[in-house]
Amino acid sequence: MESAKDRLQKRANELQHEARKSLGQNFLVSDHVINKILEATQACLAEVEKKSLIEIGPGLGAITDLLLKLETHYQAIELDYNLFSYWKNQNVSIIHADALQADWSDIDAELLVSNLPYQISSSIVIEKSVYPYTLKFMVLMFQKEVAQRIRAACKTENYGMLSVVSQEFWAIETVCDAGPRDFSPPPKVASRVLKFSRKESAIKNRKKYLQFVKSCFQQRRRILKSNLPSVHAEQVTQWLVGEKLSEKARAEELTPDQFKKLYFHLNPSENT
Ligand code: SAM
User: Fold this and answer.
1) pTM score, two decimals?
2) Which of 64, 165, 241, 250 is the residue whose CA sits 20 to 30 A from 153?
3) Which atom of ligand 1 is nearest to the CA of 118?
4) Nearest C-alpha to atom 8 of ligand 1 is from which residue?
5) Best CA proximity match to 123, nearest among 153, 146, 106, 94
6) CA atoms of 164 and 166, how far apart (whole Å)
7) What is the mean pLDDT of residues 199-226?
8) Which of 8, 54, 56, 83 to mutate to test the pocket of ligand 1 (most atoms within 8 A of CB)?
9) Cα–Cα distances in Å, from 59 out to 82, 175, 184, 251?
10) Lining residues, ligand 1, CB within 6 Å
11) How far is the CA of 212 from the centre of ligand 1 (A)?
12) Which residue's C-alpha comes closest to atom 17 of ligand 1?
């Protein structure tokens, strides 16, 4: 079979396409990394009923060519009009839109796969965590630093809002790493693929929960209590004492489970 690098070159020539930096166009050329993404995708598909999949940014098709060979209901979102037109002309079900602005309520997909443009990767994870659409799995490529933040443990430097929210709603595994030379053009940074499996969560109002976690980390160096509305100060103190945490604890000292407990403590109607 033709290598990913040859496929990319051929298609780029055919479409006279030059990579657009502003759209994060670092195209995958590593057969090894593409196969790892495909294996993780197949493992997810084995666990879903409708086999419906959406890809953000098919680009020149590094992953798409292989996904289209699977028995799935494939859809894509692509912001680059040139690339969108190419796939549309191939009769692929594709929307020309910004994945962050598109109306996902009409998208009935169980699995999201993407070599994400780095500039939207954190926002996509937060959004797909909080909005309870149909997604049950995600296989996503990130800048390694972002992948580390997503999986970071509490009390570490990388731990923050992205870690807490991701870990509340997903079980997360590392699929593989990728270096600059696995892409064309090569980015300056290392990358990592993560697999997300949806977890049950008792949180009902996810928007409100997200706002709460955001406020807790608003000013990282401030103590937790000072980042929350002063009317809650007494309740927060009681809760911290009950959890055997210092009254001066910072947000980074709470595990994702403790964030949920504190959220329920402050919003009892959410926990009924
Ligand atoms: N999937 C291809 C691959 O692995 O080689 C391309 C990946 S490239 C890192 C990111 C792709 O996402 C590009 O095709 C780019 O045009 C597209 N893209 C960038 N920003 C986007 C956005 N906001 N919404 C949808 N697609 C976007």
Assistant:
1) 0.96
2) 241
3) 9
4) 25
5) 146
6) 6
7) 92
8) 56
9) 9, 21, 12, 39
10) 23-28, 56-60, 62-63, 77-80, 83, 98-100, 115, 117, 120
11) 31
12) 57
Closest residue by CA, ligand 1 atom 2 = 59
Residue 162 CA to ligand 1 center (angstroms) comes to: 21
Q: Which ligand 1 atom is nearest residue 59's CA?
A: 14
Q: What is the C-alpha to C-alpha distance for residues 89 and 117, in angstroms, rounded to an integer?
A: 23
What pLDDT is attached to residue 56?
98
Rounded average pLDDT over 192-202: 95
In tens, the pLDDT along 15-35 reads: 999 999 999 999 999 999 999
Residue 1 in this model has a pLDDT that exceeds 80: no
CA nearest to 203, candidates 153, 250, 266: 266
User: Which residue's C-alpha comes closest to atom 12 of ligand 1?
Assistant: 57
Helix (H) or strand (E) holding 4: helix 4-15
Structural domains of the chain ordered from first start = 4-198 (3.40.50.150), 206-270 (1.10.8.100)
Rounded to whole angstroms, the Cα distance separating 8 from 62 reads 7
206: number of CA atoms within 13 Å, CB side?
16
Give the chain's length. 272
Q: Is 222 left (phi over 0), alpha (psi -120 to 50) or beta?
A: beta
Burial class (CB in 10 A: 0-12, 13-18, 19+), 68: middle
List the structure tokens of 266: 């402050």
The pair of structure tokens assigned to 177 is 């790493």
Looking at the CA of residue 28, tell me the nearest atom of ligand 1: 5
